[in-house]
Write a structure and sequence with these properties.
about 240 residues, alpha+beta, two-stranded antiparallel sheet, about 35% helix, disordered N terminus
Length: about 240
Amino acid sequence: MTTPAPHPVAAADGAANPLVVEVTRGDMVESRHRAAAAILDRTGKVIEAWGDIARPVYGRSATKPIQALALIESGAADHYGLGEVEIALTCASHNGEPRQVAAVTAWLARVGLGVADLECGAHLPYDEDSVAAMIRAGAKPTAAHNNCSGKHAGFLTTARHLGEPTRGYIAWDHPVQQRVLRVLEAMSAGVDVRGYFLWSLLDNYEWASGYAKRFGLIHVDYDTFVRTPKSSALWYADVASSGTI
């Protein structure tokens, strides 16, 4: 719950980050956390802001779509026939539900790897029903239950496709991480990488319009899953190879 701070705070703190999030235990406030917030429009323009929104923060899982770029651009996704399930798991965190764990496990098997190759560590699912079921069964979580296992499967798939070592892929100097670092460095230098997100790569589910809209560069036959490049994909390939529009 977000409420004004009930007790006086230092003026500097209050001016910097005026929002306070209270964590309660019963009727008692257990802790308070100052916060900054902003509302942006679709162009990135700040419409409303509270506190110091320019202060650097950890991107955490919000960077997963950026970390997934190499999986697409390298051709690894196409080579291994990855579909919307695998791409979604790469770009987001999951709850460790059985269907998600099974999807990650099957994906790893498809590229000739296993759960033991994941270097993300293990933790119990975020989904309470899944946790209860594991406790009743006396089962222990594996790395596939980790909310980031889809992203890590993407890392491994890219390394496998490019003939790179899969062991130690989480090290900062491994080629997998260096590819991610180059994109983040470009963004930090002011390079506009939004072009990556102008279209989705494949026709896919769109939250507001379901399967009715087709925004992808690649046409997907939802019955056969046959993929056919659209004219926009050919145009984009020409722009990428020539460096001109």
